[in-house]
Input
Amino acid sequence: MRKLMCVAALAGFFAVPVLAQEGQNRAGNPAGRRKYSYAESHQVLQFLELTDEQKAKIDALWTDFQAASRELYQKNRPGRGASNEERQAFYKAVGVQRKALQEDFDLKVLDILTDEQKKKYEAVQEANAAFQKAQREFLIKFTNEREDKILGILGDVYKERAEQIKKGMRGEFNGSDTPGGGLYRHSQGR
Output
């Protein structure tokens, strides 16, 4: 009886992966599930009534963009023994290159859109940019007001701690100067 149960358990163990594979198509996607479409899931593009041809072109561009982005990060990536300065320099350089890739991708997407679609797309992008700018300005103002109140209460102790944090950050945050507020602002004498 014990042998029979072991054989049954082993058969079930080996059958599960085979049965799971039957529910997938050749691309490895579960049967019945659609492949991801950038054009259909983008916050603006999905509302522009794109043709199937436009969707296919945009999705192909997205696939190329993703591959190029992945290559940027994998190429010349600092090893485990790399210093923080080497890592920061790498990510800063990759950020600049990726931004250029993104801009190129965006221009290619615009080339695929009709004139009417471009107008709608650009109008929504401008509205989103204005909203994000207003949101950043509000958060910086709010943070600065909060910091001013704390500074008024805690005084020099707070300034000393801000200076310690600044030294720890070496005047940079994620490899770029920060125009924001908070402890960093006060440690810069802003």
Helices lie at 2-22, 38-41, 52-74, 84-112, 115-154, 156-169, 183-187.
